[in-house]
Structure formats: structure tokens, C-alpha cells
Automatic annotation (TrEMBL):
Top-level lineage group: Eukaryota
Keyword Hydrolase: yes
Protein name: Alpha/Beta hydrolase protein
A single MF term (Gene Ontology): hydrolase activity
The AB hydrolase-1 domain, residue ranges: 44-344
Keyword vocabulary terms for this entry: Hydrolase
Keyword Hydrolase found: yes
Ranges in coiled-coil conformation: none
Amino acid sequence: MSVPEVVVSQEHISSSLSLGNGVELGYLDSGAPEKQVYTTIFAIHGMGYHSPVFRRVIALSPAVGVRFVAVTRRDYNGSTPYTAHELNALQNGSNSDKQAFLRARGLEIATFIQRFIQENSLPAPSSDEKTGGIGVLGWSLGASFAVALVANLQTYPTLIQKTLGQYLRALILQAAVCRPWPSLPPQSWSPQIDTSIPAQCRQTGFVQWITSYFEHGDLSTRDPNVLEYVLPTVKRVPSVFTMGQDELDEMTNIDAANGGDTLIVVSFSPQLRACYKDALYNKDIRAALPRMKVLVFSGDATANFGIVALWSIEDDDAAAGGGWVETKIVPGINHFVHWDAPQLAVETYLSVFD
């Protein structure tokens, strides 16, 4: 689906939605576009950067007939922090405790979506399946929460199951983290995992480094050895240098990244992989979501893990018989296409709805 060039507005709605049991999720909402039947995309942010990182896509969306809602995950600014019990499950939990933690996070986002649909009278899919309905976008670590949302569908209240079955047209995984899938290649590097960097600087270093552009070798080989793991290219300015200090302060939360998110990345691989396999390849779940298409995409200039994850998903799709997932590597983009090239980001998101 081609998105015409438009002039964007900086207006958006910032609010929160109560889910019950003392839990609220904050969000940014582009608001409804002028046309009566439109598609809504719910975005789940990654690690360190949260909902305001989508501000340029949010500003663009109404003019191209899309409603864009960036949901803020627990522990990040504007949403309820994790409880002591939840933090204990992250730090010391058994396998079943970790499964329950992910199931609860999936239910929270599913509940948010169901209530948002109801309270805002979001349009259902049109009869020709060309517009209406919703997509769920998981960016970076947010992809893990997106697959947890879908994987636990059958445990949700009946109303939520029916709503998602009727409305959900797309699951979009953008530069998905590799950790839920096979182990990272041994040459992988990030400021987060480099113990020669002082501990207090690792997340801050990651927040800057992850916005870089990287010059990889021939990606058609699907060979991890052609990837650049450490050194950004000097041919393009990292995205962080196009962010004002106020903007950067608004969209980042180092404490949240250092807290629950780091524990999830470090110790939840088996549980996340199980969610991923159910969300994408479980026949019963896919049958219960008959309209849901899956798009996995990454840039050819992004940090290595997004490309490795995409290759891993392609292998899993082939092993499952093929046709479960659409994948694409988009030329010229890094981890922050929604910031540096929001027009292209929206065009890529909408391509799965065609």
C-alpha cells in the first residue's frame, strides 16, 4: 500500500487506560482520521525507548487514514510499575512463574486493546477486508510482548478472544530481538553485554549505539559472518543525533531498561520462544485469528540482532511448511525507521494489510 507524502501535525492525545486491579497503561493516540472506516495500529515499544519514540509516525497517521496508538508497557513513564511480586517472578521465578508473568503481560495488552476498541468504537474490518480492524506492532523487545499477547489468546476471557478474532488483521514484528529465538552469534556485541564498560554506562551506551547505522556485507548469503557487530558506519548520522535533548529525555527510561527488561532479556529465552512458536505456528491459535497476517521486517543497516532474528524466523517458517510469515529486509533503514523515515515506516506497516 503506497502512502502519499503529507505534511504532518504534531498533535496527539496522551492518556492512560485503567485495566482494573490497580493497573494502568499509558498511551499516545493519533486520534481518528477523517474517514469513517480506518485501520488502527497498536504499537508496543522496545527497551529503553518508549511510546514517544513513535511520535513522528503518530503525527503522520491521521493524514494517511490510520489511527496509531502507542501503548506504554509496565514500568515505563505513565504506566503502572511492576509490583514486588512481579519483580520477584522476574528475578527468582520458576519456569511456571515466568510463563505466568508473560501471560499476565499479554492479558494486560489484550485488555487494553479490547477496551480501547469498545470505548472508541473502532471500525471493524470492512466487508472487502481492505480497511478497518487492527494491527499489533511489536518493535525490538516489544515484539516479545506482541507474541505473548497472541500466544496466550486461549487463556483470555471470552469477550477478549472474540474481539481479537474479529478485529486482528496483522501482527507486525519490527527488528525483533533475537533472544527469544536461537542464541545470538558468538561474535555479537552490544554496550549492554560488554563488561569492560562500567555498569552504570552500559544502558546509556546502548541507548546511543542502537540508533546507529551499520554497513553489513551481502545479506543474501544469510551468513552471520557478513554482519558488522560492533562499529557503526560513518556514512550516516545515528538517529540519536537528530533528537533534541528534551525529545530524548521524553522517550527514554534507563531505569526501566535496567530493571525488568534486562531480566526478561537475560533469563526468559525458553518462555519467550514458546510464546513465539505458538503465536506464529500454532494451528488452533491461527484458526482463532482468521484475519491475522504476520509481517517480520528489519532494515539492512540495522544492528545485527534484527537481521539474525529475521533469518531465524524464515528458517522456522520453512520448517513449519512455509506461508505462515511474510518477511522483508527494507533497504536503507536502521533500528529507528519510525523516527528517521516515518513515511516509509507507515508504508511498511500497511503493506501487510493488502
